[in-house]
Write a structure and sequence with these properties.
homodimer; about 550 residues; alpha/beta; TIM Barrel; Double Stranded RNA Binding Domain; eight-stranded parallel β-barrel; three-stranded antiparallel beta sheet; 19 helices; 16 strands; disordered C terminus
Chain lengths: ~550, ~550
């Protein structure tokens, strides 16, 4: 059976940029476009050239892609020709093969927002699309407020779409701009407009997540006959976001009825990079990745219930609808007071620690984790701190060094040029190989800027650890997260530090204290110890 | 036309607790149950009595609710009677009016996971439900893996459900345990099983969000005839979460075809408390609320695109599918380099600052915001810092006091009892009313525990501000968030501080620096200044 081609149109760089708090730099746009192209989407909407400086700069710097890079704009205004509309000209000047113009299809918006007649609007849409086609470009028309318009005046919305098609638009995209349409309505309306003469293989769907149905509305539209889906990575976008391609792509590629019915541009091989692409975008945005995200979230294949966890160990299909590896994700059996010893042994094995079933150390480790969690610690993500705790309990944690005391000073005052400057200084006293060592570091980096007290502490701590200092050379801190949380009855600070080394390892450690510097210091100590466990076989004695 | 009653079954306290990293205390469970009851759900599943100590304690401490408090458990095991199954006995001992038991309906799980015959499983389900009913309780049966089972052996899944109904179960709940079913499949299967004799008004639906379709699958099941929806607040739950009642409730109550067709227990008045309930749960969990959450997210009614923002100011329905007030949420016109001056004036008005259109100060404020955002600041949430920046530019920020310098020391060492202890000390030098004042504070609270350097700084700063100190007495810090972000080409620390005062005000301020203490100090300073702007009419001169 031949499959039908379904096209993916990504608008992360345009509608995704409408997310509150999101503003991509040109370099970030280039990086995201390259990732989208490797993934295999068909269209990459790069932005609105002329509307803001970053978007214009991006089209100048645009990378070569197999995907069609598309410039976004709006239909020409009334009272001038398409050729003489300067907003449209700026869009055309980006020189992309494809151009997508948004225009009104809801009669209320035509007469109230634009203040023009219904006929003038149809003429604007037709002339604008015809202009793009005349310039040898592929034209797309985003029918704004399509579903709201169809509710009020179905004949007019269809009329506008037909004008775009007759002018030569390759695609007319049915936009649920306000995000209010529900899947049942989308299904019915798409069926009706196809019956009314709009050809399904020239229709696209653009939904928003205001009722948490954007993915379902996209699927409902495909079920009813549209052949292009617009969406964004991680569901970025105005208000509650656009349809989430990160959730849609695996569904289309792995699950029935879609996998038998459709071909998409994303290959099974590229799909295995999906989790990485999703995390990369969060990294660019400095966002904590959503743990619960479908397919790519850190919890998406995390089995907390004791019953589930033990069944999973026998046969993963018992509690997993797809194999996590297909999307580049991984199974997690987290710790919690509902987790049994089988979870714990699984997690210890992942950390390279093999413990016999029935070993009394298992109970001791679980008890200690419960006690620490009550104090505000969290080991769901801090796998490295979990491992150190377990090693300690199992007598497999070497005593590399001992911290005797530290002192950090943070000062802000005027310098000799009468400018306010800040500076931190840390003194750390350790005992290593039987020797007491005092180290002092300040927080200034090469160019003289203050990197703060945790930086000064980290430097002082690593400065002289005898035989171990060399091993820590290629290690650096990549993320630092702080939350106020509950430790017993008091509010405490939980710090999670992510570290990386030259061998590409990345690990997370946790520290808890009412004192943020102290919590950071604890997480730093764990980070260093984990690295030393990995990279050295010391002469030191085993800790008690 | 009479409407059909649709029942809401909340499992936040049971399946919601399966979320990675979530563990409610008994007191928190009580607080959540009360909020659910005020909202108007029909059932509150409180946990599995006997399975873990918190769940058992909760049923002992359970509040009186109009909603039916329900204990969860599993069907009796083979080889013993329902009366003699100790796991089931623990569930019954919770003494709830309703009891929900999960049991197998997928033949593979019966023979492989349980290792019993298909007939034995049917008998277990029947006997367990009959036992509950014989004890005068309402019985519910969760048919685990129903949709996976129906794919493999539709006759058997229906047979198990019929056994539960015949034994007297009020509800049989079709569970998509693994979250793999898509809305089209749910719709078809529900129609088929109703046609096969399962009565729709005794069927419920329980979905998971593994393909981001849990809400849509619930709606599809209702469309096909089920009359009970199971879900959780904020979509908590195992892996990617359960169907999100926070999204489903407003859809059912505000949107067609549901509002005309169904009655639910949630009133329009209670719906206006939905955003508050959602945020309360995040607060209990110490989670940053999802900005993009449907209906209740801080961005759900945030209009960033310049075109949208100006239309919204004329008529909100142009870009909003429902009125934010119906769910207790609010419209936001955030700042960004895509926002025009009309956004800015709207936001200034919200801050009580009226500026004429065309005032050159508007351009200066926008420029300064852009420059600060490039340095790593973010004003989307830090409304109080935004206001101070604008006031400064408008010449409406009084110069209350000036900080000349500060110094903080954080020390960790052994005390006289040979125990490691930490202590911070802060010295702040300010000039207020022409007078130089030195204040020193340490970080210890009444019971001698160290609250850290930011606490010491906050106390020293507020200690002696002359005429202003009194005003700051009822102010305290409620949250403190730290992110590493990009400031120009360097990584910097962004601190957001949420403060509260005795008048119930809550405000957010931002500070940015490579030095975490310095960033915190800046956010603290803003927090204090904002409070002083509100609460005093000083003699001080206006800042330049």
């Amino acid at each position: 059976m031949t499959k039908t081609r379904l096209y993916l149109y990504d608008t992360t760089l345009r509608d995704g940029q409408q997310t509150q708090g999101v503003q991509f730099s040109t370099a970030e746009k280039v990086q995201i476009a390259q990732a989208l192209d490797e993934l295999g989407v068909d269209y990459i909407e790069g932005g609105w050239p002329g509307a803001n400086p970053t978007d214009s700069a991006f089209f100048d710097a645009a990378p070569k892609t197999a995907a069609r890079l598309t410039a976004f704009g709006m239909t020409k205004r009334v009272g001038r020709s398409a050729e003489n509309d300067n907003v449209l000209a700026a869009v055309m000047n980006a020189g992309t093969k494809s151009v997508c113009l948004v225009g009104k299809s809801h009669d209320y918006h035509v007469t109230q927002a634009l203040g023009i007649t219904l006929e003038e609007n149809v003429e604007n849409v037709h002339a604008s699309v015809a202009h793009i086609v005349a310039q040898g470009r592929e034209a797309l028309f985003d029918a704004e407020h399509f579903f709201d318009g169809y509710r009020d005046n179905p004949r007019y919305t269809v009329l506008v779409c037909k004008a775009a098609l007759e002018a030569g638009a390759r695609w007319v995209v049915l936009c649920d701009t306000n995000g209010g349409a529900l899947p049942g309505e989308v299904s019915r309306v798409v069926s009706e407009v196809i019956a009314a003469g709009l050809p399904g293989d020239r229709l696209g769907i653009h939904t928003h997540n205001d009722t948490e149905n954007a993915v379902a509305c996209s699927l409902a539209a495909v079920d009813a006959g549209v052949r292009q889906i617009q969406g964004t990575l991680n569901g970025l976008g105005e208000r509650c976001g656009n349809a989430n391609l990160t959730a849609l792509i695996p569904t289309l590629l792995l699950k029935e009825p879609y996998v038998s019915q459709f071909d998409i541009g994303v290959s099974v091989e590229a799909l295995a990079g999906l989790t990485r692409v999703s995390r990369m975008l969060d990294e660019i945005l400095n966002r904590v990745p959503s743990k619960q995200a479908a397919y790519v979230g850190a919890s998406a294949f995390a089995h907390k219930a004791g019953l589930h966890a033990s069944a999973i160990l026998k046969d993963p299909s018992t509690y997993e609808h797809v194999d996590p590896a297909t999307v580049g994700n991984a199974r997690i059996i987290p710790m919690s007071n509902q987790a049994g010893q089988s979870n714990l042994r699984k997690r210890l094995t992942e950390a390279g620690l093999s413990v016999e079933s029935g070993d009394p150390a298992l109970g001791r480790i679980l008890d200690r984790i419960k006690q620490r969690e009550a104090e505000g610690y969290s080991y769901d993500t801090a796998q490295a701190s979990f491992e150190l705790l377990a090693r300690d309990e199992l007598g497999q944690l070497p005593a590399f060094f001992e911290v005797k005391r530290y002192k950090v000073t943070v000062e802000r005052r005027k310098n000799k040029y009468d400018k306010m400057v800040s500076l931190s200084e840390a003194v750390v006293v350790v005992k290593v190989d039987g020797e007491k060592k005092l180290s002092v570091s300040e927080s200034l980096d090469e160019d003289g800027s203050d990197r703060g007290p945790v930086n000064a502490l980290a430097k002082a701590l690593a400065k002289d650890l005898g035989q171990y200092s060399r091993i820590l050379d290629d290690m650096h801190l990549v993320d630092f997260k702080v939350r106020i949380t509950q430790g017993g009855t008091e509010a405490v600070t939980r710090v999670i530090i992510d570290s990386e080394d030259g061998q590409g390892r990345r690990w997370s450690t946790v520290g808890v204290s009412a004192n943020i510097v102290d919590a950071s210091f604890e997480a730093l100590l764990d980070a260093i110890q984990w690295k030393l466990v990995r990279d050295c076989r010391p002469r030191a004695v085993v800790a008690e």
